[in-house]
Write a structure and sequence with these properties.
The protein is of the alpha/beta class. It is built from 14 helices and 6 strands. Strands 3-2-4-1-5-6 form a 6-stranded parallel beta sheet, with helices on both faces. The longest helix has 24 residues.
């Protein structure tokens, strides 16, 4: 089947706080779509405030998928996302609707579009040892170790990005090969759907930072710290669980442990969110077929709808 005859799917990407959820709902008002969340934090149950999940009325009005599918103690990989997303895309198409994949986890988008190499699964023993080393030495020290065995991966990973540092070191210990060498090939793009890729790219970074700060203040007022306290009481969580590494939750954990005074909690949370947005923007700029839309443009919705309409013709 030629590309022009493949069923349609829409990818809606953007940095945190850029308005992806609202724009997805605007698209859903005009076209028969089902929304697939591309968010590594929204997969977790009982983590609602800090993940900015779509409101219950939104999920009731438009079908949403891959939200609340894991407990906070469980893991979920980019490979699992790809398998789940591809299955959902096929099912949504069979129902006569259009898959709209919306979110900000760029690794998930990359896995969906490009595939992933066959990397080893997580090893709890190695992860525990790495976590213990990080608690005594700090993640920047482990990042320095990574720079010795895999300088290419270390150059791409922030010195405080615990999850990716741990994974890169874990793979090296399991295979004896650097992660960068194992992932340099990639796989062909999947060919089940033709894609329209929309990317929210703020032209005014200061306005995005203002929105990030405002949204984090709302999360604090809604009880982000109390949400994390309740999670700690309900589940056998520790700071190295993937769920507790999510931006906002990591800072709330540090605050509850007494490591971050309340007056610094907001500052650290907003700074970490800004860093996340910066990394997301870097990913977005590397996607050659993405149509850039300014989320602060007065006619954002109309622009997006015109692109979708032209794509579906």
């Amino acid at each position: 089947m030629g590309p022009e005859r493949l069923p349609a799917a829409i990818l809606l990407m953007g940095p945190t706080a850029s308005g992806k959820t609202d724009l997805a709902m605007r698209i859903a008002e005009r076209f028969a779509v089902e929304i697939v969340s591309v968010d590594s934090a929204q997969i977790y149950c009982f983590m609602d405030i800090g993940t900015a999940k779509p409101e219950p009325w939104m999920q009731a009005r438009v079908p949403h998928h891959l939200i609340d599918i894991r407990d906070p103690t469980e893991t979920y990989s980019a490979g699992q996302f790809r398998a789940d997303a591809l299955g959902l895309m096929q099912a949504i198409t069979r129902r006569g609707n259009i898959p709209l994949l919306a979110g900000g986890t760029m690794l998930y988008f990359h896995a969906l579009r490009q595939g992933l190499n066959d990397l080893p699964t997580a090893n709890p023993e190695i992860r525990q040892l790495l976590g213990e080393s990080a608690r005594t030495q700090g993640w920047p020290a482990l990042h320095a170790q990574l720079a010795v065995v895999d300088p290419a991966a270390a150059a791409r990973i922030n010195a405080n990005d615990a999850q990716r540092i741990q994974r890169a070191l874990e793979i090296f210990q399991l295979t004896g090969h650097p992660l960068s060498a194992l992932t340099s090939g990639g796989r062909p793009e999947f060919d089940s759907h033709r894609l329209l890729t929309l990317a929210l790219m703020p032209q005014d970074r200061a306005r995005l930072h203002e929105r990030i700060a405002r949204r984090f203040d709302i999360m604090l007022a809604q009880g982000l710290a109390e949400e994390v306290r309740a999670l700690r009481q309900r589940f056998a969580l520790h700071e190295n669980h993937n769920s507790m590494r999510c931006v906002g939750y990591r800072q709330a954990w540090e605050h509850l442990e007494g490591n971050t005074p309340v007056e610094n909690f907001r500052e650290k949370g907003t700074a970490a969110t800004r860093q996340l947005a910066k990394r997301q923007m870097t990913w977005l700029r590397s996607i050659p077929d993405a149509i850039a839309l300014d989320p602060f443009h007065s006619e954002l919705t109309q622009q997006a709808l015109r692109h979708v309409e032209a794509f579906l013709r």
